[in-house]
Amino acid sequence: MANLDRYLYPQMSAQRIIPMILWPVSLLMVVHRSVFLGVNGDRTDDFKPVYAAAYNFLNNLPVYGENYDTVDPHYLYPPSGTLLMSPVAVIDYERARWAFIAVSVVALLICAYLLTRMFGYRLNSWVMPTVLFVFFFTESVSHTLIFTNFNSFVLLGMLAFLMLMRSRHDWWAGVPMGLTLAVKPVLAPLMLLPLLNRQWRVFAFAIIVPLVLTAVAWPLSVDAEDFIARTVPYLGEARDYYNSSIAGNGAYFGVDPWLILLLRIAFVAMAAFSLWFLYRYYRTTNELLWMTTSSGVLLCTTFLVGSLGQGYYSMLLFPLLMTVLLPGSAMRNWPAWLGVYGCMTFDSFYSERWTSFGWMVEYNKVTYGWSLLMIAVFCSLLFRWLDMRADGVADGQLRPAPTTARPAAEPRNTDDASLSLSK
Asked: Which segments show compositional bias classed as Low complexity (predicted)?
């Protein structure tokens, strides 16, 4: 009977089982989110104002004449972005929207592959289908396709920027960053990374690309001045709808301005410490961990303390989430992933029985998720620094041994948030 075991109980490793499960599930999720939910659409249509602006641009009509007092999606891209988006209006609206969804899905598939390769895994590893599953499981990716937003291409530009910057292709690294800034400058905080890493050419080219596109687009737009006069002031306001930033959330719930200001200052302070610690101790020892964690800290802080933070921006935090595969990751604790659930879940918390409570949870989940994620990363890094300082190694040098014997302090386990966050 023992000889039959290899037939009756064939051995299979987890590295084979995980792809066997997740590849078919992930691919069907891609089809569901794009072909069904994406084409169906929803009450919000981010593509409609983009198509209208592109059509007006191609036909020499005003682009920036919207009424910003309404809660409908508005066209907020600069003239350089209008130039790049103008080809979508060459065909009719419905086919243009379907094509945009299809290209967005292709961009997301490329993003999943690039993220897998960035962290040293192959296409046939268990990581690729896992990344793909996580992508299309989230609200961020799902609503990017359903609302037909530009975020997929922003994520693609971000990953290309980080990978080219890390491989020291400085001129090329500035191109994807510059293209995203020309359309949607949500990645602008990441410009701090090449400055800190002294990669000046990356920074220079990322600025040159949108400037050149603006120089071309400006005379072609009949009302480019209105972008400065009308749209830029609106972008600086913290609107009280579809806004998960601290200011937007506070305005919606009537929070006192002093408390909003205090919270914004607190998260900026947490980000400043986190960026300092990462720069000092990881930039030269683990550049991948430094770049991906720092990018997540910069973007999450911007979402929280800026004037506008929308839930589907969370997809730009995928590189931060992937650091959980690296030793030393600040994501190796459960509060961080509770925060990830809050800002990325596709679950709805509206309740017919507990109406007020469900409504409050639904409208706060993204803000709370970003906040908890930032706090978890900050505390993880802070406890490491406190342990290093207590042991006399914070400056890179060991402190002289004490003359009187005493029990060695047990270091905090920063991978165990139940221990770390209780101290």
From this structure: 399-411
Token pair belonging to 319: 């590189």
For position 154, what pLDDT does the model report?
A: 98
The tokens describing 106, both together, are 């292709």
Angstrom distance (rounded) from CA 182 to CA 336? 32
**229 in helix, strand or coil?**
helix
Structure tokens at 409: 């302090």
Spatial CA neighbour of 213 closest among 239, 184, 178: 178
Confidence (pTM): 0.91
Domain-embedded: residue 9 = no
Which amino acid type is present at position 221? S
185 shares its domain with 251: no
Total of domains in the chain? 2
Same domain, 163 and 272: no
Residue 303 lies in a domain: yes
**Residue 189's domain spans which residues?**
21-235
Minimal CA–CA distance to 18: which of 109, 137, 132, 111? 132
Listing DSSP states for 117-184 in one string gives HHTT--TTSSHHHHHHHHHHHSHHHHHHHHTT-SHHHHHHHHHHHHHHHHTT-HHHHHHHHHHHHHH-
Please report the sign of the dihedral spanned by the C-alpha atoms of residue 33, residue 34, residue 38, residue 40: negative
pLDDT-derived band at 418 (thresholds 50, 70, 90) equals very low
Residue with tokens 């051995």: 11
CA atoms of 290 and 162, how far apart (whole Å):
11
